C-alpha cells in the first residue's frame, strides 16, 4: 500500500460523484494504517482496528479499508484480497433527536420574525440541511413547478425538492417580487444560533422529523430518497430506525382506512 495508491483511490471516489467528505475521512484512516505498516496484512489490520475502543471508529476504519479493497479488486490489483475478511464492527444505534409536529407548532408560536418562521418552515417541510437553507437563492425557487432546486448539496449533486402550498405562500410573501440573491439572507451559523436561542430542535433534528413525517403521510421511500438526496435506503433506515414501530403502525392504519 502506497500513499500514491491511496490518493488515486480517493480521486476515483470523487470522480464517481461520491461524497468528498467521506473521501477525506477514508484517506485519513488509510494513511494512519500506512504509518503502522507499508505492507499491511490481515493481522496488522485487525490490530489496527482494535487499537481504538470506539466501535464507531472501528467501523469507519473498516469501511475505509473495505472501500479501498473493493476499488483495488475492480481495478485488477492483487494483494488486497484479505481486506474482505475484516469483520465490520456493529455500532449501537442510539435514539436521535427528532423534531415533531408539536415542535413545529411551538416554533410558530414563539418565533416573531417572519424570516425565522420561514427558516423553520423550510426545515420542517423540505428537510433541507442547514447549509442548504442558507445557500438557497431566489432563482432556485420554482413557483410554477412548486419546487426548490438545491444546488449546493453534501454530495455535490443538485436535487429538486417539492414545496407545499403553504410554503409557497410564505415564500411569495417573504420575497415580494425579489428576483435574485439569497432567500433568507442568513448564514448557516445564524440559523443554528436562532434555533438555539429559541430552544428549538437542531436543523438535523428537523431533517429527521421531516423524513419521519413524510413517510407517515404516505410518501414512498423512493420519493423520500430523491427529495433528501440519498442514494440508497440505508440513510432512510438510519434516520427512522428509532421510530420504525410508530411508522409501521401509521402505515397499517392508513391501509385499514383505505380498505374500510
Q: Can you count the beta strands?
A: 3
Could you name the ranges where pLDDT drops below 50 across 5 or more consecutive residues?
none
Task: Identify the CATH architecture of the largest domain.
Answer: Orthogonal Bundle
The helix-strand sequence is HHHHHHHEEEHHHHHH
Strand order of the largest sheet: 1-2-3
Radius of gyration: 22 Å
Whole-number average pLDDT? 88
At the first level of CATH, the class of the largest domain is Mainly Alpha
The gross shape turns out to be elongated
Question: How does the major sheet shape up?
Answer: 3 strands, antiparallel
CATH superfamily of the largest domain: Intergrase catalytic core
Helical stretch tally: 13
Structural class: mainly alpha
Proportion of helical residues: 55-70%
CATH fold description of the largest domain:
hpI Integrase, Chain A
Total individual domains: 2
Report the sheet-strand fraction: under 5%
Spatial separation of the terminal alpha carbons: 63 Å
Write the layout of secondary structure elements.
Elements: H1 3-15, H2 20-36, H3 42-50, H4 55-74, H5 101-110, H6 114-126, H7 130-134, E1 141-142, E2 147-150, E3 159-162, H8 165-175, H9 188-197, H10 203-216, H11 221-228, H12 233-240, H13 244-259
Antiparallel strand pairs: 1-2, 2-3
Helix pairs in contact: 1-2, 2-4, 6-8, 6-10
